[in-house]
Amino acid sequence: MASGGRGVQRVLVKLERSIQEGNYYEAHQMYRTLYFRYNAQKRYTEAADLLYTGALTLLNAGQQQSGVDLAMLFIDTLEKAADSVSEDSIKKVCKLHELVDPDIQERANLVTAAIKWSRKGAREMLSGHPSLHQQLAVTLWHEKNYSQARYHFLNSSDGEGCAAMLIEYHVTLGYPSEVDLFITQAVLQYLCHRNKPTAERCLNCYTKQHPQVEPGPPYYRPLLNFLWLLLLAVEGGKVAVFTILCEQYQPSLQRDPTYNEYLDKIGQLFFGLPPPAKPQSSRLFGK
Predict the structure, then answer these.
(1) Which family does it belong to (predicted)?
(2) Considering its fold, how many domains does the chain have in total?
(3) What single string gives the DSSP state of each residue in the chain?
(4) Range of the domain at 53
């Protein structure tokens, strides 16, 4: 890393000494000093390298607050830089996220900042870069934070990973009667995100790998059959098939009041149906 002058070089030497001596407070302040100098000169690449190294060092040393502070500055620097979002920068952000204590509020702030940065230059990524969401999801899954992992998987393109997580989630915390509910909401939400390929992969992996799901299709459980047929209907694009399918499976769809809301949106996205006539009731197929 270029030093950028004798003054910066002196700070770098002092910084290294502080780290070796375990004087992390002083090290943190010097990281910030160097950051402001690089930032003022718009030397964002050097600033990002410095902040990432510093955040790693402090987080690995158990200095959570200081480490998160540098991690936030790292993301802020990535935001300012002219570089587009890359897999390498996503990997670094997710590594820092992994090292932050799950129980502190700053971790949520880090995720919010990371998602905002990952939208950079891509209008189609309003919810954040799929690769960022996928890596965040895996970390949260390993921490057994299934609900948050599910949220990030649904904003990724990793249908296989989502299915494996949902299986573990259901087997660990769900009831046997909910085996079809866990996958139904996920598939419908993927479709609401216009992500049909991932919806298909998620359903296929879930039904093939879940120990409580019989071979298919067709399936013994009506909702699993509905999902299989729904994906075929989306592929075909015929509104009559979609409408009849939703009407025929209403008894099963009524197990969760959100299903018909998702189907309203799917009808609009894939079949050109209008929004519900009455805003207070979005159930096109409800009774």
Answers:
(1) Belongs to the GET4 family.
(2) 2
(3) ----SHHHHHHHHHHHHHHHTT-HHHHHHHHHHHHHHHHHTT-HHHHHHHHHHHHHHHHHTT-HHHHHHHHHHHHHHHHHSSSPP-HHHHHHHHHHHHHS-TTSHHHHHHHHHHHHHHTTT-TT-TT--HHHHHHHHHHHHHTT-HHHHHHHHHTSS-HHHHHHHHHHHHHHH--GGGHHHHHHHHHHHHHHTT-HHHHHHHHHHHHHH-TTS-S-SS-SSHHHHHHHHHHHHHHHT-HHHHHHHHHHTHHHHTTSTHHHHHHHHHHHHHH-PPPPSBTTB--SS--
(4) 1-123
In this prediction the pTM is 0.91
- 117 and 134: one domain? no
169-216 pLDDT, tens per residue? 999 999 999 999 999 999 999 999 999 999 999 999 999 999 999 998
Same domain, 135 and 257: yes
d(CA 260, CA 245) in angstroms, rounded, equals: 12
What is the domain-level CATH number for residue 57? 1.25.40.10
